[in-house]
Structure formats: C-alpha cells, structure tokens
Amino acid sequence: MSAAPIYLDHQATTPLDERVLQEMLPFLTSEYGNPSSPHAYGRTAARAVRTARRRVADLVGARNEREIVFTSGATEADHLAVVGAALAVRPRGGHLVTTTIEHKAVLAACRRLVDHHGYTLTRVGVDRYGRVHPADIAEALTPRTVLVSVMHANNEIGTLQRLAAVADLTAPRGIVLHTDAAQSAGHGLLDVTELGVDLASLSAHKLHGPKGVGALYVRGGLRLTAQQTGGGQEHGLRAGTPDVPGIVGFGAAAHLITTDAVPPPSRVRALRDRLQRRLLAAIPGATVNGHPHLRLPGNLSLTLPGTEAADLLDRLPDIAASTGSACATGSAEPSHVLTAIGLSRERARATLRLGLGRTTTDADVHRAAELIARTARALSPTPAGAA
Ligand SMILES: Cc1ncc(COP(=O)(O)O)c(C=O)c1O
After folding, report:
1. Are 182 and 74 within 8 A, CB to CB?
2. Cβ 178 under 6 angstroms from ligand 1
3. Ligand 1 atom 16 nearest Cα
4. Is 98 close to ligand 1, i.e. is its CB under 6 Å away?
C-alpha cells in the first residue's frame, strides 16, 4: 500500500485536530438542542456556543464576546463585513478602498456594491513583496470613503500587512477598517484591539477546526446591515439556526492556540526555512515570492522558471500542494496576486505554493525537498546544480 501524499497545502485547509473532534462529537450526537430552545437541550447548546464565542474572542483579542458573529466561513464574513458595513453608512458616502491582492471573497463583495449599489472602488497596488504602503492608502482616501478593506495575510504569498498604520489613517476619519484575517488568526498573529481594526473575517478550517464555520469580529458599537435576515440569531446580524457542532469545534481550535496546546509558529517557520533553503540551493533560478520575513510562518511560494507548476504537480503524486497561479478552481488565468507583485504570466504559471503547518514533520521536509528538486530539474530546460 502506498503512503499518503505529504500534505503541503495548509493555506488551502488544515486537518481537523483530534481534540477538536472530541469536543464536537457530543454536539453531533446526544447534545442536539437548538440554542434558542428554552429547555435543557437548548440551554446546553446555548452554553456551548457561549463558551466558543468567548474562546474565539480571546483568540483575536476582542474585548467582548458579543463582538463575535458566527458565520459559515470567511467568505460569508467578508461579504457581511464589506456589504453590511458599506450599506449601513450609505448616506455618508459611497467610495470603497481595497487592494489588488485581496481574496476573491472581498473583491466580489466590493464588486457587488459597485455593480448593484452605485459605489466607486479604488484598488491600491502593492510592492514586489506584496506589501501595501499606507501612504498609497492615504492617497486613495476621499471625503466620500466609507470603508477600507486590507487583508492581514495573503493566502498565496503569505505577506503580512501593517494594519495598525492603516488604522491610523481610517480611525480619525471615521472610515470603517475591515481585514480578512482568515490566514493569520491561527498563528496568533491577530489582535484586533492592538491593530485597531473594526471588522475581521475568520475561518475555522484554516486553524485545524471544521469546515463550514467562521466568524466576523465586529467592534462594539459598529453598525452593519444584516445580509441574512430571519430569526434574529447572532445579535440580529446572521439569521439561521447556528451550526452548534461547528461552532464548538471552532471554539476548541481557538482554545488550543490561546492555551499554547499546539506547537509554536517558530517550529513551522524553521521547517519552512529549511525547505526553502534546500529548494533554492537545488533548483537553479528558483525564487521566493512574498516578503522575506513578514510573512506567514508556513508559506512558501516558489517560482521555478522554465516549468509549468501544474505539470510539476502532476508528476509529483506524493506531494499535495497547489499551483500558485490558478486564481480560482479550474481557472487558466494566472493569479491576480502574482501579477500584482509584478510576475509575468509565464512566471506566475511557473509558481508553486507550498503550505507547511502543524502536522508537517522533518521527514516530510526532507522527502519533499528531494522529490520537488528532482522533478523540477527534470522539467527545466537548463538542468544544472546538485540535489
Ligand atoms: C484569505 C482568505 N479569505 C477567505 C477565504 C475563504 O474562507 P472560507 O473557506 O472559510 O469561506 C480563504 C480561504 O480560502 C482565504 O484564504
């Protein structure tokens, strides 16, 4: 029997932590109450949701657990944040600012406001490391700007943004600041109070929790227009019976991080750095995308000139990784993130995204380096160098 492929796609999703599963199980079986019900089953479910809300609030540094609104994931949180915040302050203005490297969920939400509600949008560019310069945000602001959305960590190249410097621009002007923090929250990198953001999108499956659940941090006092109305759940911001097992799992995953029950980010960073060193040494012309230091600890976006990343991965059945170039499932277009940092279409198509995580081992790094280097050299038109 062949061994399972080495999982190097932690930016796409992460495996469910066994301890998280154990906390979820009762809520999938015996504890099936609806948290809105007035009896013992309902009270047990409501208590579990309250605990999870507190745990997620602690993970992101929220002052009050009421600032957490559970959603079906970061996509829905992005939509509620961008559309809900902009519509709530419509009389004050109709201009939005975001960046050229946002996740599609944010870009699509902005596009909806432009196409259906008459907003205007400025997309601020980034430097070759994928960093947004606060001065460029400042230049984009107008008296009609109501919302700025800048992601905390990019899902392709891992670059982290200086959100506190952006908050220094938005807060005094009364502009709402949203960040998509789906990729950063699991590394203990997000403190919404310290960074001064008003809204932050989160996703449980990026931090070893279950899929299909996420949250939006909403700073106390900020008004949003609900995008899903009905029974008034989630402080009236997201109607529908909550996914209790999923929420419990999200809370459990957050709690493991805040109580240091998981390996520190320095461990995965060290493994990533080793893989990076080995691949750069073994593959002539290979380059790393993203910021050299200010990036997610497990992210390694590599351009291997002369290759097609999709071909490379086809020849690497023992490695589970992503091409860095497909901007959406099934799309042949090069990634908008890679082109935004200045890569040609050809270099974008030669880009591989390796995502290391909590479950990555030394042996994985050793074997992955060997397999990727050998295959890339075999595909490259100028084979040279030693393994
Ligand atoms: C930065 C970012 N935002 C949003 C999402 C969407 O998250 P979800 O799968 O929870 O909807 C992802 C995951 O693909 C992501 O990486």
Report:
1. yes
2. no
3. 155
4. no
Which pLDDT tens digit goes with each residue over 80-139? 999 999 999 999 999 999 999 999 999 999 999 999 999 999 999 999 999 999 999 999
How far away, in angstroms, is 203 Cα from ligand 1 center? 7
Q: In this structure, which CATH number among 1.10.357.10, 2.30.30.220, 3.20.20.60, 3.40.640.10 belongs to the domain 18-258?
A: 3.40.640.10
Domain 6-15+263-379 has CATH 2.40.37.10: no
- Measure 107 CA to ligand 1 centroid, in angstroms: 12
* Residue 145, helix vs strand vs coil: strand
Ligand 1 pocket member 183 (CB < 6 A): yes
* Minimal-distance CA residue to ligand 1 atom 14: 12
Residues of the chain with pLDDT under 50: 327, 383-387
**Where are any strands of DSSP class E within the chain?**
6-7, 68-71, 95-99, 120-124, 145-149, 176-180, 199-203, 214-218, 287-289, 299-303, 319-320, 322-323, 351-355
